[in-house]
TrEMBL record:
It comes from Gouania willdenowi. Its EC number is 3.4.17.2. It is found in: Zymogen granule lumen. Residues 6-305 form the Peptidase M14 domain. One of its GO terms (molecular function) is metallocarboxypeptidase activity. This is Carboxypeptidase B. It catalyses: Preferential release of a C-terminal lysine or arginine amino acid. The active site is at 271 (proton donor/acceptor). Keywords: Carboxypeptidase, Disulfide bond, Hydrolase, Metal-binding, Metalloprotease, Protease, Signal, Zinc. Its cofactor is Zn(2+). The gene is cpb1. One of its GO terms (cellular component) is extracellular space. Belongs to the peptidase M14 family. One of its GO terms (biological process) is proteolysis.
Length: 309
């Protein structure tokens, strides 16, 4: 059964998507943006007060990497909090009145499912998609190396057996193609792109495919520092902000750099808790505090974007 303080498997998340979207039809709707390699529907949730005119939007995804279980947990938490605080929390109410928030609860569903059900000891540590190609016995590509942003030039591998395999071409992974197509189709309204990963407690922004600073570097840094301060105010959790290339490592083909170069100025990658004690195996007891503090950072970015469009 589904619980916000558990790591739900794909089956439970799928039923949760169906029930939450039908129980709140005035604030939430769903649409399938395509299927995964193994045929699972990629269902995107749209949060926002219904409006006759089209609203500016924020796109947020979770679960690009299969083993980063706290990430999908955060997207589920965000949806719950958005629905339950709309009308009482002033910031959430203004956000959903003026903007729509698109939430993709699990990007790499096949990989996520594999980390729950795989038959091997190390299945829990799977990172990539689950696509196959004849000629190689190795499975999957790294979705965050498969976007068309300096594709496979830096910090990525062309070896299909590597955990950072960039894929056979940009957007070779159907999950990446589906998300990229949605964002391209809606780029006129999408003002911010937020992608949730773990772990390391970082708030990253472009670029990662080059050491060059982004055109909007100082504003992106200012917003990231404000968001980190908001996050820290709850339990004292410290985040480091900065461009990906110098703050974590140079790595091309990421969704944040791709969205930014498409014209989505406010493009952020979160690396949630912790800093390595548990790493990807963050205990379920940390889901609630992690999600509550991250809400403050995401709401900070959203409020900034809403006031500056
Ligand atoms: O390497 C990644 O894809 C991310 N770190 S993780 O440990 N979750 O795998 C960082 C992504 C930063 N952005 C880009 N490299 N574009
Ligand atoms: Zn990741
Ligand atoms: Zn709460």
């Amino acid at each position: 059964a589904h619980s916000y303080t558990k790591y739900n498997n794909w089956n439970d998340i799928q039923s949760w998507i169906a029930s939450i979207s039908s129980s709140n039809p005035n604030l939430i709707s769903k649409q399938v943006i395509g299927n995964t390699y193994e045929g699972r529907p990629m269902t995107l949730l749209k949060l926002g007060k219904k409006s006759s005119s089209s609203k500016p939007a924020i796109f947020m995804d979770c679960g690009i990497h299969a083993r980063e279980w706290i990430s999908p947990a955060f997207c589920q938490w965000f949806v719950k909090e958005a629905l339950s605080t709309y009308g009482s929390d002033a910031q959430m109410t203004s956000l959903l009145n003026q903007m729509d928030v698109y939430v993709l609860p699990v990007f790499n569903i096949d990989g996520y499912d594999y980390t729950h059900k795989g038959r091997w000891l190390n299945s829990r540590m799977w990172r990539k998609t689950r696509s196959r190609k004849s000629g190689s016995s190795c499975i999957g590509a790294d979705p965050n190396r498969n976007f068309n942003a300096g594709w496979c030039t830096l910090g990525a591998s062309s070896n299909p057996c590597s955990d950072t395999f960039c894929g056979y071409s940009p957007e070779s992974e159907i999950e990446v193609k589906n998300v990229a197509n949605f964002i391209r189709r809606n780029k006129a309204i999408i003002k911010a792109y937020i992608t949730i990963h773990s772990y390391s407690q970082l708030l990253l922004f472009p670029y990662s495919y080059t050491y060059d600073l982004a055109q909007h570097h100082s504003e992106l840094m200012q917003v990231a520092q404000g968001a980190s301060a908001a996050l820290r105010s709850l339990y004292g959790t410290r985040y480091t902000s900065g461009p990906g290339a110098t703050t974590i490592y140079p790595a091309a083909g990421g969704s944040d750099d791709w969205a930014y170069d498409l014209g989505v100025k406010y493009s952020y990658t979160f690396e949630l808790r912790d800093t390595g004690r548990y790493g990807f195996l963050l205990p379920e007891s940390q889901i609630k505090p992690t999600c509550e503090e991250t809400m403050l950072a995401v709401k900070y970015i959203a409020a900034y974007v809403r006031k500056n469009i």
